C-alpha cells in the first residue's frame, strides 16, 4: 500500500514562492510561463500571480502528441523564453516528450520547473522547489487540487507506475 503524503496549501505556497524567487534571481528570466496539464496548471497560475509573468497552458495529461495540435508550434515560434511548469518530475516522461516536440518545432529557449524533482528521473529540470530521490522516497504526493478526488482515484493514479511507490 503506498504512502500518501498530502501537500498542504501552505506547503504549496512555499514551493511556489521558492520557484518565484529563483525566477526573479535569473539573469535571463522567462517571458512566458506554460502550465502542463493536469498537474502543472495550478502551480503555473500561482506562479504567474507571484511573478507577474503571463501564462499559457498545454494539455499533456493524455500523453498523446497528436492532441497538442498547433500549440507546440505556436509556443516554439513565439520568440518567448518559455518556462514549462509541472507539479513533479518523476520519471521524466512528460518532460522528455515535450522537449522533443518543442525541439522538432524549432523552440530555442525552453526550460522546465517543478514543485518536486526526482533526482533519479531520466530528465533534469532547470528549477525545482524541492528535490527527492525516488530510490529512497516512495511517497505518492497528493497536491491540494488532487485531494478532492476520491481515495480510490488517487490510489489508481499511484498504481499506474508501481515502481515509483514500491
From TrEMBL:
Sequence ranges assigned to domain Phosphoribosyltransferase in this UniProt record: 11-146
InterPro entries reported for this sequence: PRTase-like, PRTase_dom
Pfam families: Pribosyltran
Gene Ontology molecular function: any one: glycosyltransferase activity
Keywords: Glycosyltransferase, Transferase
Transferase as UniProt keyword: yes
Top-level taxon in the UniProt lineage: Bacteria
Residue stretches in coiled coil: none
Name the record gives this protein: Phosphoribosyltransferase
Organism this protein belongs to: Sphingomonas endophytica
Amino acid at each position: 500500500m503506498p504512502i500518501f503524503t498530502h501537500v498542504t496549501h501552505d506547503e504549496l505556497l512555499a514551493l511556489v514562492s521558492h520557484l518565484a524567487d529563483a525566477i526573479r534571481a535569473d539573469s535571463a528570466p522567462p517571458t512566458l510561463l506554460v502550465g502542463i496539464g493536469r498537474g502543472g496548471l495550478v502551480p503555473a497560475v500561482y506562479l504567474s500571480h507571484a511573478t507577474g509573468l503571463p501564462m499559457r497552458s498545454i494539455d499533456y495529461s493524455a500523453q498523446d502528441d497528436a492532441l497538442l495540435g498547433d500549440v507546440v508550434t505556436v509556443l516554439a515560434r513565439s520568440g518567448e523564453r518559455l518556462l514549462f511548469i509541472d507539479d513533479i518530475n518523476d520519471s521524466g516522461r512528460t518532460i522528455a516528450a515535450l522537449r522533443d516536440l518543442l525541439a522538432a518545432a524549432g523552440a530555442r529557449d525552453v526550460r522546465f520547473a517543478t514543485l518536486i524533482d526526482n533526482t533519479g528521473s531520466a530528465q533534469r529540470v532547470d528549477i525545482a522547489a524541492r528535490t527527492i530521490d525516488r530510490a529512497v522516497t516512495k511517497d505518492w504526493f497528493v497536491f491540494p487540487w488532487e485531494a478532492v478526488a476520491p481515495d480510490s482515484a488517487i490510489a489508481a493514479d499511484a498504481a499506474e507506475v508501481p515502481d515509483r511507490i514500491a
